[in-house]
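Co-fold these.
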Amino acid sequence: MSPPQPPAPLRVTVWSEGRHERRDPEIAQRYPRGMHGAIAEGVTEHLGERARVRTATLDEPEHGLTEAVLAETDVLTWWGQAAHKEVADEVVTRVQRRVLAGMGLIVLHSGHWSKIFTRLMGTTCTLRWRNAAERELVWTVAPGHPIAAGVTHPIVIEEQETYGEFFDIPTPEELVFVSSFAGGEVFRSGCAFRRGNGRIFYFSPGDQDYPVYHHPQVRRVIANAVAWAAPERVGAVPRLTHSAAGWFETAAGGPA
Amino acid sequence: MSPPQPPAPLRVTVWSEGRHERRDPEIAQRYPRGMHGAIAEGVTEHLGERARVRTATLDEPEHGLTEAVLAETDVLTWWGQAAHKEVADEVVTRVQRRVLAGMGLIVLHSGHWSKIFTRLMGTTCTLRWRNAAERELVWTVAPGHPIAAGVTHPIVIEEQETYGEFFDIPTPEELVFVSSFAGGEVFRSGCAFRRGNGRIFYFSPGDQDYPVYHHPQVRRVIANAVAWAAPERVGAVPRLTHSAAGWFETAAGGPA
Amino acid sequence: MSPPQPPAPLRVTVWSEGRHERRDPEIAQRYPRGMHGAIAEGVTEHLGERARVRTATLDEPEHGLTEAVLAETDVLTWWGQAAHKEVADEVVTRVQRRVLAGMGLIVLHSGHWSKIFTRLMGTTCTLRWRNAAERELVWTVAPGHPIAAGVTHPIVIEEQETYGEFFDIPTPEELVFVSSFAGGEVFRSGCAFRRGNGRIFYFSPGDQDYPVYHHPQVRRVIANAVAWAAPERVGAVPRLTHSAAGWFETAAGGPA
Amino acid sequence: MSPPQPPAPLRVTVWSEGRHERRDPEIAQRYPRGMHGAIAEGVTEHLGERARVRTATLDEPEHGLTEAVLAETDVLTWWGQAAHKEVADEVVTRVQRRVLAGMGLIVLHSGHWSKIFTRLMGTTCTLRWRNAAERELVWTVAPGHPIAAGVTHPIVIEEQETYGEFFDIPTPEELVFVSSFAGGEVFRSGCAFRRGNGRIFYFSPGDQDYPVYHHPQVRRVIANAVAWAAPERVGAVPRLTHSAAGWFETAAGGPA
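Predicted complex below.
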């Protein structure tokens, strides 16, 4: 066995629509470098040299998610809200294939209704909501999970958009966080999925109307999720394979 | 194939400690026929002739759970709070074996800390609590699950003991309900498990200090759970089995 | 409470491509009433008057799956192999919505690669295969599950197409059967999923080249699956819902 | 944020009965440093300086698992076969508590019937078996899982004891491997569980009668499992906690 090498830094692409911050001065003041900027900052803050973070937004060519960018992305984070329909189907298919090949995907807040998330889930991904500046408490229900490492119990977010059940998703492979809101709703706010060779984490806190992506604990969770979703290596999309009997006896063998 | 027979009625045994109601006049007034009486009533109310319900309590010989009683029980419901330690280990083992053989088990409220539940779970089954007459909202997170059939979303319970996470249980095979409490806590209040040939459902609403077992929706959930946990037939406890190669080719074949 | 009514019969639609049997005399001899005919026969054999079974095939108008037919279908079974691409996207969307609203869906054998299954799963649903008349053994890994009720352990199928892992599906909510094949492959052959208000079961045994749908145990599993997937009632597709604070206090309350 | 520190090496304790190798010359020749020696070697081979490995065996005082040893153990691996009953209940309780507090536990082969595994699972953990030198194929069913990283698909083990279903365990939180055996049996051979703050992995390959712990791929899986089971930090055993309303507003906040 060769000695373990220092691992190469994780290549993270932080994606968001990037429009609210340009159009609405209040949001621009809250997120002067964009929500993607705040999210990227939080990842760097926690992962330091373990990650190399770049951002991409909707209005770039191919939404900033060209084949070349995805080929160099180990984990993609996704925030969208008002312009889900403007995301090109071709890019959605490209991202989906990359996830099935192994790229990690972190879907944030209103990204629950993005094309890429509903495509990967197969359900409507709808939920109950209101925007009433209610307090959100994020409770850990899987304390041994790496995404919960170092996270306070509960995370207290003073003001947030309210999300409530029923959240129409497949049963998460791992349920990490459940939130309550001042109005009484509950929401499965931290949900881990495996699809193909890839890992997906949905995390609901975060909104353009509240400074949630500056919250130290929210940043910690997102950074933990990025680290957790990192693949050993991104391989190929699973495909239909014809195999003769006994193929494995002579084959060198490879991954599943 | 023979034509389907009218199914035999489900044999349900409702167990509780049966002491609070004898010692505390206020509780006696709330539950004149005991908490077991109220729970049994709710099951009968919903399942009618589909179930034959009896009750058993701690201070009966062998806690009312003799081999004979268990042999005639398809689903057992369990409520305990103050006297978990008084339940004989021999009876716990007997119930555990019956569950693994296929008997359904519905564990209610403070039964989370009973010997039988912690034995079957392998964890501490501890949680966070306070008794402050807070409003509990029980939200369905698995609307297609039979235990949620006909249940309002949310169930509103005006006053309840508060339970909160972290609830130290194995990940439920199916999470059906999540509650919020007025104080902000959340709790996985409806959890389904499979163990051996048996099915287990934990449902947290219900307490000696509040009339929760008279709540129509709580009764509906418990009745649904009893119906869901009913085995096709109670078979044998799984056991270590030595099998010669090809045993299945000549065997008549039987259940797993 | 009103006394329990005799339940209305389950409305089952058995769908298949219906082409192999018309084109290939050998297959026609094996399945003189079509594969759909054999499957329908097996369901009726086991569920008797509890089910009312009809069939539909690809070449009927709208593939026999009009809005009207789906509105009267509680459980749909799906067999496809050579003509997945010919299924109209509009019909796929219609079936998907009906499943999310609560209709049960049983996907059989090569239906793993159908549009409706891959749409609901969000993954490629690809696998490893060869057609070599190998013996398949279907082992129960969830003996308490209703779909395994009365099923021998293992089911021995003398000749079958071989399917092997990796099967690119989301982790099933419940894994009921795992198969081995004479050549050494294993396959998760019985997988239960919940999506929206609906239940989905994938069962891999069955092929046009082998008389698998005449196998008594295979028929039993399919009939069990149909009964398990039956909804309490088919409701609405989940949708994005705006709710004012405290909406549940005054609302009559309804399903999730 | 402080810059990330080089992580402290993982403290691994490899436990086995350590008797077969002393009593049976053939086994001694196969495993000259004991099975624990071979297992420890494999972990070191893969994790190198990331792990500090020691061994402990049944006949040491307190089976080599004193409070002091466990306090310095991040991950414990367990192999037992003939002497499960000789393990002191006090030590079992000690290990169980340490797992619930966060220590990783890797249970190997016939360890399925150990006191510690059955205690943590709550079921009989029984299975079907024969000792007939059959070929085992270990198939990956969760290719994105860290325990499957770099593992061939399938792992081919020329001769092994045969294990078959039904394996009476709770549904694993994550099913990573499924094996087939030449005789036709299948077995869920790689099963991940979370209990309390700790992670548990059961891996079935390995036996005193076959050189399985010298198999490069088996060693890789065990090393991967050790790395996966490593806790961020071992905390406290979950316990019943009384909390006043609003406790989280003033508390500094801590882990769940």
